[in-house]
Amino acid sequence: MTTETSREFEDLLLFVKENRGFDFTGYKRPSLLRRFERRMQTVGVRDHADYRRRLEDDPDEFAELFDTILINVTAFFRDPPAWEYLAKEIVPRVIDGKADEADIRVWSAGCATGEEAYTTGVVLLEALGESAFRERVKIYATDVDEQALAYGRHATYPAKSLAEVPDELRDRYFEHYDGRYAVRKQLRRAVIFGRHDVIQDPPISRVDLLVCRNTLMYFDAATQNRIIANFHFALNDEGYLFLGKSEALVTRSKLFIPIDLKRRVFARAPGSRSRNHVRELWSDGRNALPFVLDGEFGDAGLHQAPVPQIILDSRGNLARANVQARLAFGLTQADLGKPFHELEVSYRPLDLRSRLDEVHLERRPVTVREVEWMSDGELRYLDVNVTPLVAGDGNELGTTVSFQDVTRYHKLKEETEQARKEMEAAYEELQSAVEELETTNEELQSTNEELETTNEELQSTNEELETMNEEMQSTNEELETINDEIRMRTDELNETNALLTGIVTSLGSGIVVIDADFTVDVWNEAAADLWGVQPEEAQGQHLMNLDIGLPLEELHKPLRTALAGERSEVEVAAVNRRGKSITCSVMATPLLSPTGAPAGAILLMEAR
After folding, report:
1. What letter would DSSP give residue 377?
2. What gap in Å lies between CA 51 and CA 15, rounded to an integer?
3. Which of 306, 347, 313 has its CA nearest to residue 327?
4. Is 211 exposed, middle or buried (0-12, 13-18, 19+ CB in 10 A)?
5. Mind listing the pLDDT tens digit for each residue in 28-62?
6. 100, 127, 169, 217: least CB-packed within 10 angstroms?
């Protein structure tokens, strides 16, 4: 490649990164260049500058380009001996190393269309059983190809993808229809698909098993080292890394030790620094450093901190806030000295007041991880550390709160590499040639599969439409069944209400039903005719607040007797709605709940 062509190609890669967020700068140049040129030949473009203009004029061309670059060559139980070793030797170790109820987290990086993520799920299902698998296992399947992820979420595969799956496992975990196989629900629900770039995005943390097979070989050595460092951070101390047969750079990394080199299974190297070493330094009283709130030295150190940080004094007032904190949370100079609980940052992005109380009470740091925070229209995640500041004599000086942005994991700084021996350099070149050969084989296989896929696309489209029609028909049937049940229950309820209304209306006596708080629930027509108050005026009102001709204060004792569970009857002098003096017989009967306890009272009123 000439210097001019190389510059145009790098400009093209930068344009793709800036416009679509795909960073291909870490990919091996010969393989990447071949794929770009394949697409350029397809659209009839001669050089990289012209192809860039094609991308600017036709944004849909990006999708075709990514399909060409991101080769998704995968299958269920690809390389069966490696999966058999994983199932028999590694998965039992992962399970035995966890508490009985502890979660098991799996990361399938570069999952393509999801076959290897589901294969890992099948292995864990066989080892744990359906109940424990459903409660404990989460499998995170990630890739940069959105179309491949969408295919994996659909969880329907052609028969050839399951060629290596044993018959009993295929019957147990897949449903067959119209020549395709769909993953069953108990396995599908455990796999979470999401877009993730292993070069740029921070790794998924606290992982027990990391599966990344035949993905690293597409990147150059420097990029592979960065990814391997991220994998090291992602794994728990007892975690395992499962790679493909074409990836060997990790064998020379100090971060991992081989468990089975032939099958590419590695463990996290012992003695590596704990991810919590900074927190441990803060909490160790012997290592505590004296802290001074005032002075240029303290301010300089605070403002030079790479993360937003605020300091509260012993009274809970805002004492310091560095530049990062002021920009992130809108703090100003006027906020210094104010009570912290009056500031917005005390409850957004999370409620810090309860954490401050916990720190003051227990005299230990508190860390809240992965706090969601909407900043500039973008959802980010923060690790919030609340740490007490203690003087040498044990008195509390205040509290410091720092906000670590973990949305993008800071790239690990690599140590300066020593001069490599000529034999190691020759080995690197040989390994690169082997990886190039494997990549070429992958591309040839991808080309064959693309030709087969072209013949199957029309059939697949028809099958998808039939599946959608069946799903819609099934949904409509379920909705009709639910509507029928609701209609039947409504009719039953209307009949019951009509019967009760008829009974209450048919009785010649005035009937009033109250609850335990003397609130009127029922006021029949006879009562309305007797006292001149309509049901809609009485219902919901306190009985004693009604203005009727019945001396309600004389009913207190009978009502209390009824609410206590006994029946009572009194006769009182009253005036009906026509102004005529009458003698009214009032019978108070307890209204019993389903448990038999009094829930109110029923009054039967009749003029003598």
Report:
1. T
2. 11
3. 306
4. buried
5. 567 677 778 888 888 888 888 888 888 888 877 87
6. 100
Whether 487 is covered by a domain: the verdict is no
Q: Are residues 281 and 355 in the same domain?
A: yes
Tell me if 294 is assigned to some domain.
Answer: yes
- C-alpha 418/C-alpha 245 separation (Å) is 28
Beta strand ranges found along 391-537 (DSSP E): 396-405, 510-515, 520-523
| Length of the chain, in residues | 608
Residue-wise pLDDT tens digits, 246-284: 665 556 678 888 898 888 899 988 755 434 333 332 333
Within a domain: residue 457? no
Q: In whole angstroms, what is the distance from residue 204 CA to residue 194 CA? A: 11
Structural contact between residues 8 and 48, judged by C-beta atoms closer than 8 angstroms: yes
Return the residue matching tokens 């493909």: 244
Per DSSP, the residues of 68-82 read HHS-----TTSSHHH
Residue 426 falls inside a structural domain: no
Q: Which of 360, 378, 405 is the last residue of a domain?
A: 405
- Structure tokens, 48: 């990289």
Residue at which a domain ends, from 350, 371, 405? 405
Region at 181 (left for phi over 0; alpha for psi -120 to 50; beta for the rest): beta
| Cα–Cα distance, 553 to 34 (Å, whole number) | 97
